[in-house]
Amino acid sequence: MYAVIETGGKQVRVEAGQVLEVSRLKHERGAEVTLGRVLMLVDGERVTAGTPTVPGARVAATVLGHGRRRKIIVGKFRSKKRYRRRVGHRQPLSRVRVDRIDVEGAAHGA
């Protein structure tokens, strides 16, 4: 069984037991959180698409830690003007482990 959720403005496919990096969450390390909105559930041959979300479905996960992504360098340049700007950016993120996908009372966990 897997689900497609929306978190941090992005859609992510998740399964129970999977470890993923999402946009920074405000929860402490070790806290159990409910991830995003469940947009779609797939259980074998049965596909449930939400309009826009699947009612009664939720994805429970545990926060493993916080960090930042690799630095990306952004630059601006204007020709013939001796103008150059370089700026680095590191996106804050949280590492989470998906514990289970709950569907109206039935839980599917790792």
Structure notes:
There is one protein chain. This protein has 110 residues and is an all-beta fold. Strands 3, 4, 7, 10 and 11 form a five-stranded antiparallel β-sheet that branches. It has a four-stranded antiparallel β-sheet with strand order 2-1-5-6, with no helix packed on it. It is elongated, with a radius of gyration of 19 Å. The protein has strands spanning 2-7, 10-15, 19-23, 32-34, 37-43, 46-49, 57-68, 72-78, 83-89, 92-103, 106-109. The chain has one domain (2-109). Strand 10 and strand 11 form a beta hairpin.
The parts where pLDDT drops under 50 for at least 5 residues are: none
Count the beta strands. Answer: 11
The percent range for strand residues is over 45%
Helix content: under 10%
**Gyration radius, rounded:** 19 Å
Order of helices and strands: EEEEEEEEEEE
Give the rounded overall mean pLDDT. 93
Count of helix runs: 0
Terminal CA distance reads: 11 Å
Q: Which short descriptors sum up this protein?
A:
four-stranded antiparallel β-sheet; about 110 residues; single chain; elongated; five-stranded antiparallel β-sheet; 11 strands; mainly beta; rRNA binding
Topology diagram in text:
Blueprint: E1 2-7, E2 10-15, E3 19-23, E4 32-34, E5 37-43, E6 46-49, E7 57-68, E8 72-78, E9 83-89, E10 92-103, E11 106-109
Summarize the structure.
This protein has strands at residues 2-7, 10-15, 19-23, 32-34, 37-43, 46-49, 57-68, 72-78, 83-89, 92-103, 106-109. The protein has 110 residues and is an all-beta fold. The radius of gyration is 19 Å and the shape is elongated.
